[in-house]
Amino acid sequence: MNTTHSALSPTATPVRQADNGPAQRRWSLHIAVVGAILMVNSVIATYFFYDDPVAGRISAVAGAIVVSLPVMVFAVRDLLHGRARMNELVAIAVAAAFVMGKYEEAAVIAFFMILAIVAEEKTATGARMALEGLMRLTPSVARRVSGGSVEVVEISATELVPGDFIQVRPGENFPADGVIVSGNTTVNQATFTGESLPVDKTCDAPVFAGTSNLTGAVDVRVTAAGPDTGLGNVRRLIEAAERIRPPITRITDRYISYYTPVILAVAAILWFFTQDMMRVVYILVIACPCALIVATPSAVVAALSAASRLGIYIRNVDHIEIAAGIRSLVFDKTGTLTTGRLDVVRLHPLAGVELTTLVASAAAAESGSNHPVAGALARLAAKTNVVWQKPDTFSEVAGYGVEAGSDGVMLRAGRLSWFEELGFDTTPIRRTIEDDAEASGMSIIGVSRDDVIIGWLGFRDTLRPGAADAMAHLDRLGLTDRHMVTGDNASAAGVVAQALGIGNVQTDCLPGEKVDYVRNLKASGITVAVVGDGINDAPALASGDIGIAMGAAGSDVAVGSASVALMNDDVRRIPMFIELARRARYVVYGNLAIGAAVIVGGLTMFVVGDGMLNQIAGVVGIRPTLFKSIIAASIHILSTLAVFFNSARLIRFGDDAAPAFVQEPSHE
Question: How many domains does the chain have?
Answer without folding.
Answer: 4
